Amino acid sequence: MKTEKLMIAGLKEDIESINKAVRVLSYSLKKCTTISVKASYTMEELDAFENLTSRFARTSDIYTQKIMKGIILILREDAKTFLDRANLFEKLNITDAEELKLIRDLRNEISHEYRLSDVSEIFESVLEYSVKLLRIIDKTIVFVQDKGWFDDGDADLRQVHQTVLKLSHTPEPEDG
Question: What global pTM score does this model have?
Fold first, then answer.
């Protein structure tokens, strides 16, 4: 069994990975928010949205497969399936389990290209859930800091938090 110190070091490496992913996702999100969802796109606009969807999928993978698993390992919780992890994160007041499930579903749609016929619908969902994913990551950073696993001045944690703060002026899309 890994010692807690080694598990925390592994989580720190995963935080460094997600920090890089958050930066490029945020860049694409800003670019695509300016383009917005519409009926047709230029090749450059399609390229920008393709980058966004890819970066969303990569960031959500790092979060669900590395960050969540790392936290659960450190806490020594028994949450083997994604649904177990999502429900545990809801109990820990990090995020709503349903939001995590929807993020995972959208990631699967992107990765498996289930609905290529209606790219605008996927683009709209990715715009919405990229903001939600970034906010979940930020809440997770706060959780990790509150646990005392990292120094409050840890640069990688601050970078993720600052990136999300810059996007905080971006309102979450309304349901409807």
Answer: 0.86
Angle 63-95-19 from CA coordinates, rounded to 5°: 30
Give 150's DSSP letter: S
User: Does residue 174 lie within any of the structural domains?
Assistant: no
Q: 131 in a domain, yes or no? A: yes
Q: Which two tokens stand for residue 109?
A: 């749609």
For residue 123, is it within any domain? yes
Using the predicted structure, report yes or no on whether residue 73 has a pLDDT greater than 70: yes
CA distance 86 to 113: 24
Does 175 fall in a domain? Answer: no
pLDDT digits (tens, 9 = 90+) for 26-57: 999 999 999 999 988 999 999 999 999 999 99
Tally of domains in the chain = 1
DSSP 3-state of 75? helix
Its domain, for residue 80, covers: 4-167
Residues in the chain: 176
Compute the chain's Rg from CA coordinates.
16
pLDDT digits (tens, 9 = 90+) for 107-154: 998 887 655 567 888 899 999 999 999 999 999 988 998 898 876 556
